[in-house]
Write a structure and sequence with these properties.
This protein is mostly helical. The protein has helices at 17-24, 28-45, 61-68, 72-84, 108-130, 136-166, 172-179, 187-199, 205-217, 223-238, 244-260; strands at 50-54, 57-58, 88-91, 94-97.
Length: 261
């Protein structure tokens, strides 16, 4: 993903209670510098608040110590402080900055809408020039294609709206990745994946795409397909094979019953 070239820092940043707590610590100034550098790093990563070298390689305390030029003891203290103050989370994808959207420099929804509007406008102008001498039948077909384009644009906006209502502000790179799945799934299915991500408290485009890839690999195309697959999974889980330990416990319980007679 392309990096974000700048981030938003408000003038009342140092009035924030968490920042005041950090400043009160013995290494407060160093920890505060690390926090600002993490925000910048999240902008460079441009993954909705995640910080990682690449999607399969998260930053470690050691690598952060190297790139921030800080002792590893200070890095550990800083990350512990941020975690205790609910400023970051750590998962398999890497370090995640909670509420990173307030530092983002992109108003995702409006920007994507404007990009889509301009793109569609150029496409239609070009189409009109190419079809200026076609028959009325062909012209009618072109109108149908334009209607399809309008419907797709509406669906794209609904997907972005669903993302921002359930996950947070979307970046253009994340929007482009998410909307690429409209060739495979309709708007309803993509929104379902977004909602499942929110319910699982995994608010990232990467997690949503993982859900969509799984559904695509399984050939699930409708909400009914998804519900059926989930019911089958629950059924298989409920009918799992008895483990050796459980078999032994059951036999011992039966023997105890026999001996009491």
């Amino acid at each position: 993903m392309a990096e974000v070239k700048w981030i938003k820092i408000t003038t009342d940043m140092f009035d924030d209670e968490k920042i005041k707590i950090i400043q009160s610590l013995p290494e407060g100034d160093s920890i505060l510098v690390i926090w600002v550098r993490l925000i910048i790093l999240a902008g460079k990563t441009n993954a909705n608040g995640y910080v990682y070298i690449n999607e399969n390689l998260p930053y470690t305390e050691e690598t952060l110590s190297i790139i921030f030029n800080k002792p590893i003891s200070i890095i550990k203290l800083a990350l512990q402080t941020f975690s205790s103050l609910k400023m970051i989370e750590n998962d398999i994808d890497g370090i995640y900055l909670i509420n990173f959207e307030k530092y983002q420099n992109i108003d995702g929804l409006d920007r994507i809408r404007e990009q889509n509007r301009l793109r569609k406008q150029k496409q239609r102008e070009k189409q009109k020039m190419l079809n200026s001498h076609v028959t009325s039948r062909d012209s009618h077909a072109t109108d149908k294609e334009e209607d399809k384009d309008i419907d797709k644009e509406i669906d794209d906006v609904e997907i972005i709206k669903c993302y921002e209502e359930n996950i947070g502000i979307i970046t253009p790179a994340s929007a482009e990745l998410l909307l690429s799945y409209t060739d495979t799934f309709n708007q309803e299915i993509i929104c379902e994946a977004i909602k499942k991500s929110a319910i699982a408290n995994k608010r990232s485009c990467k997690y949503i795409v993982g859900i969509l890839k799984d559904w695509k690999n399984k050939g699930l195309k409708t909400l009914l397909d998804i519900e059926t697959e989930q019911e089958n999974f629950k059924s298989k889980k409920g009918n799992r094979t008895e483990t050796d330990e459980e078999k032994m416990a059951r036999k011992l319980k039966a023997l105890e019953g026999d001996s009491s007679d």
